[in-house]
Amino acid sequence: AVKLGLVNRNAEWGGGERWFLDGAIEFMRRGHEVVLHVAPRSSLARAAEFHEVTACFEAEQAAGRTHDVVLSNSPRDLRFALGKEIGGEGARHALRRGIDRPLVDNFLRRGTWRRLSAILVNSDATGETVRKSLHWFPRERIGPTRVAGGPARPTGAAGGRARLPQGAAAGRAAPVRGGA
């Protein structure tokens, strides 16, 4: 079993949060140890609690946690993970990129990008944008967001993706189990 740390500190509910919750549920179903590092009182924190996914809320709780792999949702989440040493010594860090916008490549950020083992992208267009913005980053370490042997977007334990109620205001509703 792999020890996974999934870092997504967005307060509101969106596609990335859904992807991280679905992924956590699927990885747990496959026997891996998963901890979601989330913002306190966020929609993802409530959804994790509802779906019985271990969540870590405070920076003090996150500091020094050991994981084999740490997957961050955004460059901001990646900097949080690296700054708080989430994963510990020897952990491999990856970034999930779900938006087709270039990553900032400058002197200050390059040190962060060099610490990545991989960048996972949701589409070919996003992958091409990442390759162009980080032209020096090894192409073979940029790939699709697929769970080994599974779909690009993992399905939840209830037979469908975990979700918030349809029509509910993001960040204010309790999550529910069920279909898409």
Percentage of residues in helical conformation: 25-40%
- Strand fraction: 15-25%
Using only C-alpha atoms, the radius of gyration works out to: 16 Å
Question: Can you tell me the residue ranges where pLDDT is under 50 for at least 5 consecutive residues?
Answer: 147-180
Number of helices: 6
Q: Could you say which structural class the secondary elements and strand pairing correspond to?
A: alpha/beta
Number of strands: 7
Q: What about the largest sheet? A: 7 strands, parallel
**Distance linking N and C termini:** 28 Å
Order of helices and strands: EHEHEHEHEHEHE
Order of neighbouring strands in the sheet with most strands:
3-2-1-4-5-6-7
Average pLDDT score: 82
Q: Write down the oligomeric state.
A: single chain
Coarse morphology: globular
Features:
disordered C terminus, 18% strand, single chain, 7 strands, 180 residues, seven-stranded parallel β-sheet, globular, alpha/beta
Topology summary:
Blueprint: E1 3-8, H1 15-29, E2 33-38, H2 43-50, E3 55-56, H3 59-62, E4 69-72, H4 75-83, E5 92-97, H5 107-114, E6 116-121, H6 124-133, E7 142-144
Parallel strand pairs: 1-2, 1-4, 2-3, 4-5, 5-6, 6-7
Explain how this protein is built.
By secondary structure, the chain is α/β, with parallel strands linked by helices. The protein contains six helices and seven strands. Helix 1 links the parallel strand 1 and strand 2. The radius of gyration is 16 Å and the shape is globular. 37% of the residues are buried. The C terminus is likely disordered.
